[in-house]
Amino acid sequence: MTNHEVAQIFFTIADLLEIKGEVIYKVMAYRQAAQSILDLGQDIEAVWRAGELRSIPGVGKAIAEKIDKLLRTGRLDLYEQLTAEIPPSLIEVLHVPDVGPRRAALFWKQLGITNLTELEQAARNGQLRTLPGMGEKTEAKILKNIEALSQRTTRVPLGTAWHSAQALLDPLAALPGVVHAAAGGSLRRMRDTIGDLDLLVAAVDSEPVMDAFVALPQIETVILRGPTKCSVQLHNGLQADLRVLPPERWGTLLQYFTGSQSHNIHLRALALERGLSLSEYAFSREDGSEILCAGEEEVYQTLGLPWIPPEMREDRGEIEAAQRGQLPRLIEAGDIRGDLQMHTTWSDGTASVAEMAAAAAARGLEYILISDHSASLGIANGLTIERLRQQQEEIAAVNAAGGPVRVLRGAEVEIKSDGSLDYPDEVLAELDIVVASLHTGLRQPRAQVTQRMLAAISNPHVDIIAHPRGRLLPNREPADLDMEAVFQAAARTGTIMEINADPHRLDLDDGHAHRALQLGVKLAISSDAHVPQAVGDLRFGLGVARRAWATPADVVNTWPLEKLLAYVR
Ligand code: DGT
Ligand code: CA
Ligand code: CA
Ligand code: ZN
User: Fold this and answer.
1) Which of 136-150, 182-196, 321-335, 343-357 has the lowest mean pLDDT?
2) Nearest protein CA to atom 23 of ligand 1, as residue
3) Is the CB of 265 under 6 A from ligand 1?
4) Closest Cα to atom 9, ligand 1: which residue?
5) 67 with 101, same domain?
6) Are 392 and 370 within 8 A, CB to CB?
7) pLDDT, tens digit, for every residue of 348-386?
8) Is residue 42 a part of any domain in this protein?
9) Is 9 within the bounds of a domain?
10) Which ligand neighbours the alpha carbon of 527 most closely?
């Protein structure tokens, strides 16, 4: 283990003990030892082998014994107990000014908050103010602190924007006289991050819609209000633009504000060739008369085009493809037959194999792959070989019970820092489908991390690479992988690349998924569900795939099970 890894474990112990309310001198002892190890000018393993652990400042008998245990066995009981009891990701929230260990514990116990993103969400939703010792002011302060801390761009992840938009649209859609209410903009195009919300409504009378909109509780300030348009700032920091036009103009309204801008510019040029000008209101002829479009199909039809799916509207060749009658038949939710990544209580999921299978059945899926973490991901309670085999018996029992969903035996096996896999080949050979992924060493230099990935891809037992680049939205950068080399290797070996549909991952992203397809790589869209409700919820992953122009044939979890199993064999 590196000094950094050992230090990290003791820092984590200190933080978790502090959240637990342990006396401060004990917490400080671990923290001081961790800092000394980090600052040590030589390898901790060398000091350990020389029997000189206690020469390290702050390392007494008790901590020296723990370091010895850790370096000998790779494990430490205290660390494992603490991380099993308290989610280690909760430590992130300690970095927020005004959030101490006591509040972190409170947020976790009362609201189930386990990380910074969830804390931010709870603050935005006004949940923190309801807790003892908290109020609106503290909540606002914490939210400001989180924002300052992350120094992020103002774009928000698609999933967050989606829920925010739905919560605004639902009450508008229910108003009398409202015929359509939908989100346009980058949200409808399913970009992975969203700058602002563009809300569109068709109603005979715009005034009551505007009145209702500005009265919604999510709205902090009204930036601008006209007769048919309105811009507001929401409490969650997002800006939302609302446009209201009569139903007979819905097609042009929706088309215009869905964008993208470059797609629209290209369409306007086509309109001009026909002597028409195109706006959000209508097509106008040179004599000033209008062509109204109540639906988007009519907008495209007027230009001699078939309707183009919003996810393709980036002027990346979709208009030319439409003109040639060669738009791909994009993958849709209805094409999905299976879900090839999920976690159960065997590792870090919340539900049993049977419960995940039942959730899949409720979604109408035909098959699922259980892919719990492998042993070395101790933080996620990864499975030893023995536990993996016990799990396979449980899977066999669920299949024997004869439910509608076939449960496949799998694992999300760690690609270790030297590129080897966490299970030996003969164990991988027992599994129906093997998913491999990187969770550690993501910051390794390009050549090294790429080599690891290529080693995993070249293992004949590895079928799918999960969340290949390891990014987290909005702020964790992907690993510095040579994706071109990765895709070439995947194409050669038939290794499938995952689009992880978790809205905080969306990895591969649309650009990489598109390139992978160009090189002949197959994709899987997987939920990475850790709870039953998430099984088969591939909405955002489908958005990525559609932006990559993926057809059902490109995505292996649209295939019948027999075809999939034959492919991975
Ligand atoms: P975002 O909000 O940065 O994630 O990206 P969008 O695509 O939602 O961009 P936004 O909100 O500025 O505008 C929404 C759509 O409205 C945009 O995709 C196209 C249309 N639009 C807005 N302003 C203009 C403009 O000045 N010219 C043209 N052609 N279209 C515009
Ligand atoms: Ca927008
Ligand atoms: Ca906008
Ligand atoms: Zn994973």
Assistant:
1) 136-150
2) 261
3) yes
4) 185
5) yes
6) no
7) 999 999 999 999 999 999 999 999 999 988 778 899 999
8) yes
9) yes
10) 4
